[in-house]
Each structure stands twice: as structure tokens, then as C-alpha cells.
UniProtKB/TrEMBL annotation:
Keyword Nucleus: no
Descriptive protein name: Nuclear transport factor 2 family protein
Cross-referenced SUPFAM superfamilies: NTF2-like
InterPro entries assigned: DUF4440 (IPR027843), NTF2-like_dom_sf (IPR032710)
Annotated organism of origin: Salinimicrobium gaetbulicola
Domain DUF4440 as annotated: residue spans: 42-152
Entries under Pfam families matching the protein: DUF4440
Amino acid sequence: MKNIILLMFLFVLSSQSLRAQLTPGSKVYREIVKADSLLFKEGFNNCNFEILKKITAEDLEFYHDQGGITFGKEAFIESTRKNICSISYKPIRKLVEGSLQIYPLKNNGKIYGALQIGLHEFYAQEKDKAPYLTSVAKFTHLWIKQEDSWLLKRVLSYDHRSPKE
């Protein structure tokens, strides 16, 4: 009997969480995908620091399982400049297709933020070589809505693994 009650409870919880996740066609989902694209395709892959300045909160907190903690927009941008954009090869981030989950955060029924969870791959592009996979990692981003734009406020980057693991 206890097992049946536990199974029913887990079913209710899982069905509620499925309803809370945004669908790819929803407006907020599309907005977060666009913000993610700006962050990684422009900021990370193309070292566009002006874009990074526009989409990150002043009090950004970035928690990385290998690189430690970075506090603040300026420290984050400087870290990106030093650790991503000034190395001997070109790092490229790709979102793993089908891994993205986005959950709205509401206050009195109004969306003020979104939680983005996913899996991404990192590649190295060296001169005259094909890009090759260097690592895979999980991420969780907290985006806060300010007027008509989204700001990256908190980042968890974890479970980095080499492709051989």
C-alpha cells in the first residue's frame, strides 16, 4: 500500500513539473533560446564583449565546477577574455539538441525570470584542423526579465567530462 501511495505521489509530482516546463513554441522559451544564442554564439564563440555586457547582470554569479566562482559582470567578461578568447585555439560551444529545459519563474502570475537547464558540448578549433570535442557539461542559468530584455543573473556550470568518460 505504501508503495502505491509513493508511486501516485511521484506521478503527480512528475506530471506537475512537465506542465511547468515551457514548450519550444512559447514566447518565453523562444526569448531564452535567443538570449542563450547571444551568450554563446556571440559572446563565447565570437568573443563579442559588447553583447556580453548587454545580457549579463551587474551582480552576476558564475559557479564553475573546475574554474571556481566569479562574481560580477566585469569579472565574468575579463575571465571570458582571458580564458576563452586569448588561448591558442578557438573554443566553440554547441547546445546538445533536445537537452534544453526552460521553466518560468512567476510573481503573482507575472513572469519575472526563467530557469534554463541543458547540456552542452565544447569543441576546439585549431588552425587548419577540423573542430574536435573537448568536453561535455551540464548547465543551469537563471535569467531575469528587465523590461523587454533578459539578463543572465546566475550560472551553474557542472559535471564537465572529457569525451572519453
